[in-house]
Amino acid sequence: MQLRYAIYFTLLSLVTSSPAAPPSSLSTVAVGVHHMPPTYIADGVVEAVQQARLATQVAGAIVALPVKIGDQVQAGQLLVRIDARAAGQTAVASQAQLAVARASLNVAEKEFTRQKQLFLQQFISQAALDQAEAALKTSKAQVDALQAQSSFSHTQVSFHQLTAPFTGTLVEIPVAVGDMAMPGQVLMTLYDPRTLRVGLSIPPAVAEHLATRQPFFIEIPAVNGAAARQVANKVTVLPSTDVQTHTRRIWLDLPSSTGLTPGLFARVSLPIQTRTSPTLTVPSGSVIRRAELTAVYVLNLKQQPLLRQVKLGQPIGDSVTVLSGLTAGERVVLDPLAAARVR
Fold it and tell me: Cα–Cα distance between 265 and 48 in angstroms, integer?
């Protein structure tokens, strides 16, 4: 009996002195520590490098709208046609007036040639020759003026057709066939999806210490797959500081890809030119992403998996840096789905 109680108390002491072992089905890994240059996390927005708000220069009713929102258009393609009947009639009248002026010029040239021959034969005076020369110059001036007016009329006719200035995607068409277009009114918005960038604002002190030779990692949470994390092709720091916000503007050119559109939220890791600091990392597969929630399963003192929200930074190979939410030495569950089933 004494031996039985001795064995019981020995087992009880082992259970109370050592923490419970994690479930056998869960694989864990300790939070890693890497020494890398510090980063500044900033929020930005995806922008189009080339974007145009197309407006008309003339007034008139819209008679043709052969495109719709989302269409891919080519440079020079017709987008809007405005009623140009009045402008066309004005152009025809200008052309007719130009023809009359050219006929008058032809007569004036022949008259000047004839008067010049008579003057050389001393049949007319110098005053008569000067009068013929003045009539010739007047006819030439009238032709030049009507030529300019005719060119202007034809240019006005071309203003009634709105064409695409570059190849791109239509994202906004606030008018319809039959609407009255006025000068300066925006009829549609066009952008080039092949050239996108992320625009963000940062404090001037951070802008002065950017490590521009190191990669700038861009995370776009609204996009799944390979396009969610990108490396900027080019970094442009604008030299001026905004007077109202006292920040510097930065543009990060994105590589050509599909699935990205202007207006998407982006988070950027900006490397800073200072000495390296310890950074925590966890495997990318251990991270749970649900809308705005980013979390991992961490073992507590009782070796039970608990969901904890974390803030992530830039990826490093198969791992991702952790900015807050974890401490060195804590153990993270590699399979979050398996941890979710543990009760």
Answer: 13
CA 71, CA 74: separation in Å to the nearest integer? Answer: 10
The pLDDT, as a whole number, for residue 29 is 86
pLDDT value of position 144? 92
> For 15-76, what is the HEC assignment?
HHHCCCCCCCCCCEEECEEEEECCEEEEEEEEEECCEEEEECCCCEEEEECCCCCCCEECCC
Q: How far is CA 139 from CA 116, 142, 209, in A?
A: 17, 5, 70
Can you tell me the distance from the alpha carbon of 263 to that of 19, in angstroms, rounded to the nearest whole number? 50
Q: Which helix (H) or strand (E) holds 122?
A: none
**Tokens 């923490």, located at residue:** 19
Question: Which stretches of the chain score pLDDT less than 70?
Answer: 1-25, 35-37, 222-228, 257-258, 274-277, 343
Sign of the CA dihedral 4, 9, 10, 14?
Answer: positive
pLDDT at residue number 18: 39
Outline where the chain has alpha helix (H): 2-17, 85-120, 126-158, 204-207, 336-340
Which residue in the block uniquely carries the two structure tokens 């049949």?
Answer: 123
Maximum C-alpha span of the chain: 160
pLDDT of residue 182: 93
User: What is the model's pLDDT at position 22?
Assistant: 53
3-state helix, strand, coil in the chain (%, to 5): 30, 35, 35
Q: Cα separation of 267 and 307, whole Å?
A: 23
* pTM for the model: 0.58
Token couple for 203: 């404090």
Contact, 169 vs 70, CB < 8 A? yes
Q: Which residues pair with 308 in a beta bridge?
A: 296
